[in-house]
Amino acid sequence: MTVPDALEERLGDWLSEHGASAFYRDADPPHAFYAYFPPEMDAPDAQGLAAFPDVALEAAETFADEDWLAKSREGFGRIEVGTRFLVKPLWDTDPVASDRITIVVNPGLAFGTGGHETTRLCMELLEGLAARGELKGPGLDVGAGTGILALAAYHLGARNLVAFDLDPDCGPAMTELIEMNAEPLKGVAPFTSFVGDLEDARATGPWNLVLANILLETIQELLPDLVSRLAKGGRLIASGILAEREDEALLSLAAADLHLLEVRREGAWIAILAERV
Predict the structure, then answer these.
(1) 57-62: long-range contacts (C-beta < 8 A, 24 or more apart)?
(2) Is the dihedral angle over the CA atoms 104, 83, 95, 22 positive or is it negative?
(3) What is the pLDDT of residues 202-221, one digit of tens each?
(4) Of 116, 152, 254, 264, which sits most exposed with the smallest number of CB within 10 A?
């Protein structure tokens, strides 16, 4: 099916609620979206897609003896991110070039596997901070998903990192990410994590780095609390923002006394680096 970027997360939630055992989005254009349902379960009525404007079901197939897990893996391969990272699924055991920092992920239902533009944009902004010697902890990853951005920040030199998400499924996903990457981490936990929100004492700060790869509406809602927890001169990396709403996002950040440092773009998405003045 074809899915507008802005509807991807909501459609994924709907598919999960209707029994999808796996779904993924192609990293390359046109970013086709696939969902898999167990053989004993009927797929939801396509008429339910009417709740998602401009979403169209392009094809449906039944696989009598298909290994759906193997099939879903076909759509996720290794991804080079920026100049420093290579993200690869846990079943990829091929060698990696020594000049790349490897992050192993388990593509599933938690957001944050490197396959989405917004994740890659945030990682590239982290690379830029590190290259300029400006990447400093402590840092907070808000709506962390798997915690991949906190892990990337750790690999680039940031310490004292905390990651959290409201979604209970993200707690095990963050633990799993650390376990899958235990070998290069040499047993060190790159970040601490919890399931909860900004009101949790563990999110109090002050933070020198805040990562927020979430929807613009959520960023706008949380912005006063995020800024209050950001140290003077601290950096905010915000993404999950559609390029068509760039002006709106920049106005929101300026109104919160954040100074724009950089905007990066990929496809229909942007990520913003700003500083608390």
Answers:
(1) 57/1, 58/1, 58/2, 58/32
(2) positive
(3) 999 999 999 999 999 999 99
(4) 254
